[in-house]
Amino acid sequence: MKPTLVGAAVSMFASYVIFAQAPANAPAFEVASIKLNHSGTNGIGGSGVCSSGGKVSVRNIPLNLIIEQAYGIKEFQLLARPGWLTSERFDIDARPGSRVGYDDCKRMLQSLLAERFKLALHPETRQLPIYKLVVGRNGPKLHKVDADAPLGIKTFDTNKGQLITRGTSMPQLAGMLAMTGELENLVVDGTGLDGYYEFTLEWAPSSVPAEVSPGPSLFTALQEQLGLKLEATKGPVETLVIDHVERPSEN
């Protein structure tokens, strides 16, 4: 399911990722179970990753998705993957001794992957396809707001295809566009527009049939509603390269 954030103030979304291996003294889950799933189906279940105070409960999930969530990356940023990372699926349950925050939980998950899957990674910058957010030919259709005014996101709903802001910078918009589920690549800001802007952006999610959710694509909506466009190009992207990974040790 795509991520949905409604009525929340969304913080800065960078268009790049900085990676760091979990430190040797990182906190660990009190209990962790990893089992190979033999169902032969594709559906993923469970309550999710790092929810409910730092619990991990997922069913029938391929390892590449767990790594991507643990490190906050997209699929194309994980390189040198053996075939079984996407073909074999696992049931993973892990819980901390006490409630922990989301960032701590992700570090604990990184440690668990290193311990049970012998996962070793290193960061590497690659020139990869990206999108650059630029101003359209007829100029932007944006209302600039004072930096001292209340800023933030009123609605960001990727299932409905709606983004309503009270004051958002262009780098923030670029990061949020990459989170819509409509784009496979990262988005960087190339508008040259500084400051904060309020606007409404509405598009038809590609995952919803056109007869259910008629409307413009994200690309068209950006041009028609905001006077902006996405240009396909190449640029430096931080990736994670797998140096070593093994099938998990027994519980």
Please outline the helices and strands.
Layout: E1 5-6, E2 31-36, E3 45-51, E4 55-62, H1 63-71, E5 78-79, H2 84-87, E6 89-95, H3 102-116, E7 120-135, E8 143-145, E9 152-157, E10 162-168, H4 170-177, E11 187-189, E12 196-202, H5 218-226, E13 228-244
Parallel strand pairs: 5-13, 7-11
Antiparallel strand pairs: 1-9, 2-6, 3-4, 4-6, 7-13, 8-12, 9-10, 10-12
Characteristics of this structure?
disordered N terminus, 251 residues, alpha+beta, four-stranded antiparallel sheet, 5 helices, five-stranded antiparallel sheet, 2 domains
Structure description:
The structure is a single chain. The protein is α+β, with helices and mostly antiparallel strands and 251 residues long. The protein has 2 domains: 5-14 and 127-237, no CATH class; 31-120, no CATH class. The protein is built from 5 helices and 13 strands. It has helices at 63-71, 84-87, 102-116, 170-177, 218-226, and strands at 5-6, 31-36, 45-51, 55-62, 78-79, 89-95, 120-135, 143-145, 152-157, 162-168, 187-189, 196-202, 228-244. The protein has a 5-stranded antiparallel sheet with strand order 1-9-10-12-8. Strands 2-6-4-3 form a 4-stranded antiparallel sheet. Strands 5-13-7-11 form a 4-stranded mixed sheet. Helix 1 (63-71) crosses helix 3. It is elongated, with a radius of gyration of 20 Å. Mean pLDDT is 88; it is low at 1-20.
